[in-house]
# Entry
Amino acid sequence: MPCHLYILYSKNLDKYYVGHTCDVMNERLRKHNSNHKGFTGSSPDWILMYMEEYSDKESAYRRERQVKSWKSRKKILELIDRE
# Structure
């Protein structure tokens, strides 16, 4: 089952969210946009900006940790713009 690293963007919050999933991406995005506790639950306007596919969950999670370790909006934007 393929897994994904993904980057979402909320215009309301002007924030990016980096995550990984092995779910169908449309379903995962629906969950982020639902009213729930947690970072993405505070805004219902998350859109998918970027995605990478991996063959296993461990690889997708490793890539998520790498991107989050940058702690840099500029580097995230550069990654998104490369696509």
Q: What stands out?
A: The chain has one domain: 3-82. Residues 31 and 41 are 9 Å apart (CA to CA).
